[in-house]
Amino acid sequence: MATPRSNSFKDDEKVSEPELIEHVGAEEKAPTQPHEGHFNALAIVAAEEKKLGTWASVTKYWVVFLWCMYISIGAAIGGYDGTVAGAVISIPTFRQALGDFIDGQYVVSAAWQSGFNGGSSSGGLFGALATGYIGDRIGRRGSLLLACIISIGAIFLEVFFSHENQVMFFFGRTINGFGGGIFTTVASSYCAEISPLQLRGITTGAVNEWIVVGQFISACVIKGTGQLNSTWAYKIPLAIQWVFPAIILVGLPFVPESPWYFVRRGRDDKARHSLDRLIGRTGADLDLHLAQIKETIELEERLAGQAKWIDLFKGSDLRRTWITAMVFICQEMVGVQFVLGYSAYFFELAGFSTSNAFSLSVGTLAIAFAGNFLGIAFTNYLGRRPIFFWGMVACTIDCLMIGILSLVPGTGALWAMGVFTMLYMLVYQAGIGPLAYCIYAEISSARLRSKTVAWGVMINQAFGLLITVINPYLINPDEANLQGKVGWIFGGFGLIFTIWSYFGIPETSGRTIDEIDILFARKVPSRKFHKYVITDADRE
């Protein structure tokens, strides 16, 4: 079992085992025999896991793989809730319940749409940040139990809000967002901790895939119920959310707790028992893996113990912090919230029938699922930088095409906008969607990794909140009423941030953490990362 975080010692001059850099997270120099000195297990386990291919890791560690998939079901809640709340606005009976009668139709005001979406994003932000504290106190399983309780109560508020009571629905969305933030963060942490080296990319990437699954299920449910002429048209989609925490609660007593949690609590016997349940069938040396966990935690404590938040903005770490923020800003400024959160509502306002609007929404998310799968599959083969850059190019062109078609009259142009919306989700999920999470995790220095990750989460949620608040004012008929012309706005921003991505995104594929440290320390331009040849002099 590999470490949840790669280890680099260039950031800490006090580490006295320089030869360890050649072992931990390193490629061809990993030893096959025990290494004298401290941290033997760390090097041995890393060397063993590098011998396995991706499929061999899945077959050998199938128990780990299945538990990761089960825990990640919680991430689907965040995807489902985020999509269904935007989609129910397209249901006439929902708009009648919480909207105002304007120009012959019921419309939920832009202010309340922004409030509903902003409340969910704010809840997700605080839920994600709170998970670090909660997880350290009650573990991964305890965190999931708490999230299930929170989510069940929040869904009750969403389903049974009183007529014209927008505040009740707002609180339901905010609280459910908090629970969703816990679900997603726990899933990512659990997969990173228990997965072996070659399996980690699949299991952590699958967390995002589960989010898309939740979004897809939401669109399918809305398609099936959205045209009902009663309050069940929106109550059924909202109530189906209860299925996800119910599934987790059924299997939660049998989920192995992360051994990392037990080691941090000084309960080595419990940690060994968890390891036995997770990898005992593989014939792995449990004592060796337990020692590897303890050594990794010791290294993290030594490195992180001297790290402060202000260090994110000092020296070479300032550049890393900037890149971490920008990869998520790029996502939002190229229009993902517009395409994903408002596709069905936008198509309906643009002139599609309710049935066709829901069909396009389902098709869009089905393509998003396929795109995310492709992104996970080809990241190691094509590299981070080219996938991210060309993903930005494709998303920008898509937005501009939607803007151009909005000026063309006729149903043919409307359907063409639907096609480009689907294409957008394909290229987004195959490119900048999953790659942002990969890049920001890899470029952070070891001693500031947890703080860099938290910084990335905050930027992601903050800009997501900003865009979701602005979107209704751009789209709604009682506000700017831009409809498809919104594509011009996000296409323009996309062009600006595409240019930045060419100069700002580094290629980290195939680079060990200590090599990435050297590249940043040498101030190598991002576009030259993949060409720079590291010599022995660089390592001195």
Automatic annotation (TrEMBL):
Keywords for this protein: Membrane, Sugar transport, Transmembrane, Transmembrane helix, Transport
Domain Major facilitator superfamily (MFS) profile as annotated: residue spans: 67-509
Membrane topology term: Multi-pass membrane protein
InterPro entries tied to this protein: MFS_dom, MFS_sugar_transport-like, MFS_Sugar_Transporters, MFS_trans_sf, Sugar/inositol_transpt, Sugar_transporter_CS
Membrane-traversing stretches: 61-80, 144-161, 242-263, 322-345, 357-375, 387-408, 414-440, 452-474, 486-505
GO function terms (MF aspect): carbohydrate:proton symporter activity
Gene3D superfamilies the UniProt entry points to: MFS general substrate transporter like domains (1.20.1250.20)
Catalysed reactions, as listed in the record: myo-inositol(out) + H(+)(out) = myo-inositol(in) + H(+)(in)
GO cellular component: membrane
Protein name: Sugar transporter
Annotated family: Belongs to the major facilitator superfamily. Sugar transporter (TC 2.A.1.1) family.
Alphabetized Pfam families for the sequence: Sugar_tr
Localization, UniProt: Membrane
